[in-house]
């Protein structure tokens, strides 16, 4: 059995049968500097509480899987150096060797499943990287969505990715991609794209029923809820396109590959947009957290 340590808040929520929303921790360790990282993480947790659910930030700390972090643990993780960024491939090794690791989308989904949590809010999922036809660089997030029964609320896939190919892989893997409140697939920092989402739902209760129905049918995997960034916080796609292209060109020239690609690109885009990308990122994560809390509550009504 895996040693799971629940925060006091999450333990109480489980005992009382309350709705819980999982959160990842790479946004804390790899997303922004201290103390902003801890402030934003606490803000997102509070958004979930205000929306009627309980937040459960996931992390592996000294070989123990934590489901929900106490305030002092959140502070410590926000200041820690050399924290691993863990996914499906290295999460068991991190636990087995007593390591400390921040959970990616895939690892957070695994942690949520182990803890009996069905809804997870994040910024954007990973996907198919540009040039994947030669590099085969495809995020483990997509395969996790195909096999782990968690509904993931995100602002689409990160805009640095090849979005058409990402949607194709999700379709091949049988993952429902549900745009919330609009027909187009949102593009992370931009609310709209020229890609039509496979499905559209306008009500958190519908999304919860779709999750429950999938489970009742015995189908593996979860579903991706693509929630557009609020219009007043977005960056127009046409403004971002040359910035992303420049950052990708620099990454290629420097031979950056594997897990290092996404942090490099996001860092360069932050610099090239004078910080606007991070401001938008915070707005979309908070927006996703609020929607996830509503879905979790609706799902709780169905499964209680």
TrEMBL record:
<feature type="binding site">
    <location>
        <begin position="139"/>
        <end position="141"/>
    </location>
    <ligand>
        <name>substrate</name>
    </ligand>
</feature>
<comment type="function">
    <text>Catalyzes the reversible cleavage of pseudouridine 5'-phosphate (PsiMP) to ribose 5-phosphate and uracil. Functions biologically in the cleavage direction, as part of a pseudouridine degradation pathway.</text>
</comment>
<keyword id="KW-0456">Lyase</keyword>
<dbReference type="GO" id="GO:0016798">
    <property type="term" value="F:hydrolase activity, acting on glycosyl bonds"/>
</dbReference>
<feature type="binding site">
    <location>
        <position position="105"/>
    </location>
    <ligand>
        <name>substrate</name>
    </ligand>
</feature>
<dbReference type="Pfam" id="PF04227">
    <property type="entry name" value="Indigoidine_A"/>
</dbReference>
<keyword id="KW-0464">Manganese</keyword>
<comment type="similarity">
    <text>Belongs to the pseudouridine-5'-phosphate glycosidase family.</text>
</comment>
<keyword id="KW-0326">Glycosidase</keyword>
<comment type="subunit">
    <text>Homotrimer.</text>
</comment>
<feature type="binding site">
    <location>
        <position position="85"/>
    </location>
    <ligand>
        <name>substrate</name>
    </ligand>
</feature>
<keyword id="KW-0378">Hydrolase</keyword>
<keyword id="KW-0479">Metal-binding</keyword>
<dbReference type="InterPro" id="IPR022830">
    <property type="entry name" value="Indigdn_synthA-like"/>
</dbReference>
<feature type="active site" description="Nucleophile">
    <location>
        <position position="158"/>
    </location>
</feature>
<dbReference type="InterPro" id="IPR007342">
    <property type="entry name" value="PsuG"/>
</dbReference>
<feature type="active site" description="Proton donor">
    <location>
        <position position="24"/>
    </location>
</feature>
<feature type="binding site">
    <location>
        <position position="137"/>
    </location>
    <ligand>
        <name>Mn(2+)</name>
    </ligand>
</feature>
<protein>
    <recommendedName>
        <fullName>Pseudouridine-5'-phosphate glycosidase</fullName>
        <ecNumber>4.2.1.70</ecNumber>
    </recommendedName>
</protein>
